[in-house]
Amino acid sequence: MTIKEHFNVTFALAFPVMISQLGQVSVGVADSMMVGRLGALPLAASSLANSIFFVILMFGMGISMGITPLVSIAEGKGKTKRISNLFGHSLWINIITAVALTGVVLGLSKGLHFLGQPEEVVVLTIPYLLVITASLFPFMIFQTFKQFAEGLFQTKQAMYITIVCNLVNVFLNWVLIWGMFGAPELGLMGAGWATLISRILMPIMMGYYILRSKRYSIYTLSLKLKKVSMPIISRILNIGIPTGFQYIFEVSAFSAAAIMMGWIGVNALAGHQIALNLASISYMMAAGLSTAGMIRVSNLIGRGDLKGMREAGMVIFGMVLIFMFSTAMIFVIFRMFLPTLYIDDPEVVSMAASLLIIAALFQLSDGAQVAGLGVLRGMEDVKVPTLVTLVAYWVLGLPLGYFLAFELGMAEKGIWYGLLIGLSITAILLFYRFHALSKRRIEESLPAEPENLVSEVKSDSDLF
């Protein structure tokens, strides 16, 4: 395929995934915009709750993504029965994960009083956090159906369902926050209940489509697991768990940044939430391109086309960089306007605008690192990238951000400069790893089973 053909195929696959990924974060964005109208205190509480919950949500999303490259590889090899088995095992892995993560959030909620946050913020945060945590169970079931379909190159259905359910969320926000149509005026809690209801609708709609559609009739899909296969569970978790930790290390870094913002003050925390919400929009769009790259890379490996696999991965890097450059320009040009969509407090708006300048700087790094994680995941290479994200954020980025903010007096800007450095380091290392690893696969031209290609690397250490 030519570069143009790679671009066209990837874009057709990626666009629905980008909208779907955007939908996952737009629930929090819509909540923050509408809650912001209640004032800085409810917005700060929403920021703290979402910072904690988003870490847990992204880990669950990472676990659920363990099925996608395996389904794509199996599709490339024409293994219908294997695809059916992957679906059943993934469903129950995700259900158990949802239960476990709910327990984690319940434990964390009891420790919020000890994080040094303003007490008035914590009081509002805990009940809101518990309500949105209840959405984990339906969300993980939805993710099972979504990631299964995406592994088969079917990406539009999840997009449509996500759009519909997000519109439901916005409508219910309006009704429940301000008490429209005779509903109780619940304020911040209204946003939480709207999120829960909309996420319950998602697996109902997606599951109904997958289980009833003739498109999937060739697969034996069942909500019951007749026979447990430890090798299948191991394969899914070997991808899903490191992927979940990749998300945790990055997202929790921003959550830790939110906690440090709380040490500075309520306005700093609210400004951070606005800038982070806007940056998360572009991030999730880039994550959609990354998912498309994962699907294409794994499918081409299944088909034995290693040259095409490398080309598809490089095209993803190019597409992400172009997209993220565009969003960086939007952040710079509209930095004073965008925060007013959330709140009309002049001090918070000014603080958010200054952070958007830094957010614009790390758009390219953020895009490149998420693209690298995706294409390497398509090669089932997840352990070294996970270590890279851990070191870049928690060993370098956050400690440096703390030093700049509190030791050098750069306050909220210092925290974000530290995160910028972490993103840049991650991007460089992951791009080089994909370049080296994909080049090695072509040179060696191993005749092994495609899913074993990565595991047969002689030594990972010499790729850096």
Shape: globular
First CA to last CA: what distance?
A: 30 Å
Strand content: under 5%
Number of domains: 1
Percentage of residues assigned to helices: over 70%
Count of runs of 4 or more consecutive helical residues: 15
Question: Please, could you describe this protein's structure?
Answer:
This protein is mostly helical and 464 residues long. It has one domain (3-444). Helices cover 80% and strands 0% of the residues. It has helices at residues 3-36, 40-64, 67-77, 80-109, 119-133, 136-151, 156-178, 188-212, 230-264, 266-302, 306-333, 346-361, 363-378, 383-407, 411-444. Helix 2 runs antiparallel to helix 9 and helix 3 (67-77) packs antiparallel against helix 4 (80-109).
Task: Name its key features.
mainly alpha, disordered C terminus, 464 residues, globular, 15 helices
Topology, element by element:
Elements: H1 3-36, H2 40-64, H3 67-77, H4 80-109, H5 119-133, H6 136-151, H7 156-178, H8 188-212, H9 230-264, H10 266-302, H11 306-333, H12 346-361, H13 363-378, H14 383-407, H15 411-444
Helix pairs in contact: 1-2, 1-7, 1-8, 1-10, 1-11, 2-4, 2-5, 2-6, 2-9, 2-10, 3-4, 3-6, 3-10, 4-5, 4-6, 5-8, 6-8, 7-8, 9-10, 9-14, 9-15, 10-11, 10-12, 10-13, 11-12, 11-13, 11-15, 12-15, 13-15, 14-15
Task: Write a brief structural summary.
With 464 residues, the chain is mainly α.
